[in-house]
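Contributing new records

If you add data, match the layout below exactly. Sequence lines come first and carry their own label; structure lines follow with theirs. Keep one chain per record. Anything else will be rejected by the validation script.
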Amino acid sequence: MSIIDDAILRLQVLADACTGINNTPQYPTDDASVLPLAIAHIGGGTGDQPNATDTKLMINLSVDFHFDRSILRLTYQKIDALVPEYIQRLGGDPTLGGTISTIVFPVAFTVSPADWDSIITQMVSFTIPVKFNLLTPTVTP
């Protein structure tokens, strides 16, 4: 498992601990039959090699929570409760269990309809910037 996978797994653990989340598969799945669900994944980032021994990664990890849209009033009640709860969980674990150097706050989120496995869901997508400082192994010819 990579360092990025370890951080993603920790985000999944925090998502699974949120009130009312039923499913948090480790990798994105084609099955949206169990809602609400959460998927964490890499969303992009940057890497830098400032010298021969250090590697710095700034990666945007994404956590997408998908909710059933059949009764929007109830869906938004769940979303309204989830947003502060998940932000608080991230704030309480800024190194994601020691898997990263730190979460770079603020954490952004958006709410929008999404198509998941041909099911239209209401999605809350968090973008969580994280910082990794790594020592580069010495490469010998």
